[in-house]
Fold:
Amino acid sequence: MRRLVWAATLVSVLTMSAAVVLAKGPPGKVTISGPGIDELLEVVDDAWMEPLSLPGFMDIFHEVEAPVSVGAGYLLTRYGFDGEQHIAFDEVVYYPATTANRALVYYSGIVNGGSEYDGRWFPVTEAGEAAMQAILGGNPGVETEAASPQDIGVLIRDLLSMLVPN
Structure:
């Protein structure tokens, strides 16, 4: 009987874990607001969805301590699509790199829910940083450096590595 309960618990945990992993896949839309952005930026191009997804954007395996000072950040709201409309899923705040800090993400959390990542700080992945530099660099008035061809190359390499299994 004890084995049956343990097996049922294991199946339940694995099922929930699979649902969480699938929910953290690429969003259907991302909105960005922050310094220098007069109107909400709406990102819908599929090319940006993977690097802006939870595992594509922030290095969840290397949590960092909350920095003393990070400056102004950009609020990203990621949306899923239910077949009829985009629904806000989660929010993060992106803090561009400064001379004192590398680029960081504060995971605000799941909209109308919670997760183990809420309220925690993570480094931005190379693909996530390249995506943000390219997106923000193309928006007049946003104070950031445009992505270099090398950054775009890193983004393309990272995207291809996600699509092609080892």
The chain has a mean pLDDT of 76. Residues 26-163 form a domain with the Immunoglobulin-like fold (CATH 2.60.40). DSSP finds five helices and six strands in the chain. The CA atoms of residues 107 and 117 lie 6 Å apart.
